[in-house]
Amino acid sequence: MMFSLLRRPTLTWSTLMKDVQQNHRSTIYSKPPKENIGPVQSFFAICVFAVTLLGPAGWILHHIPDYRQRSPPQT
């Protein structure tokens, strides 16, 4: 489909987008979840995610004064 659209001699961006939108068919199917996730599991997952992201940043920010007192590495 896409190759035939690109071979047109007078193809512009707007006509390409119109053709793609007209020929688009959704291929994503979904079903309801088999098991519902409770609030405890959600809270735990959010906490682990936050600690994973914010832990290293907090460590670095906490130790900035130590980093400033060090002498620069000698090369």
Summary, kept brief:
With 75 residues, the chain is mainly alpha-helical. The protein contains four helices and no strands.
Features:
4 helices; flat; mainly alpha; 75 residues; 61% helix
Characterization of the model:
The chain has 75 residues and is mostly helical. It has a domain at 37-75. The protein has helices spanning 2-6, 13-23, 39-62, 64-69. The longest helix is centred in the last third of the chain and has 24 residues, at 39-62. It is flat. The model has no long low-confidence stretch (mean pLDDT 81).
Q: Quote the distance from N terminus to C terminus.
A: 59 Å
The helicity comes to 55-70%
Radius of gyration: 27 Å
| Number of separate strands | 0
Helix tally?
4
Family: Belongs to the cytochrome c oxidase VIII family.
Pathway: Energy metabolism; oxidative phosphorylation
Membrane topology: Single-pass membrane protein
Subcellular location: Mitochondrion inner membrane
What's the SSE blueprint?
Layout: H1 2-6, H2 13-23, H3 39-62, H4 64-69
Pfam families: COX8
Subcellular location: Mitochondrion inner membrane
Transmembrane segments: 40-61
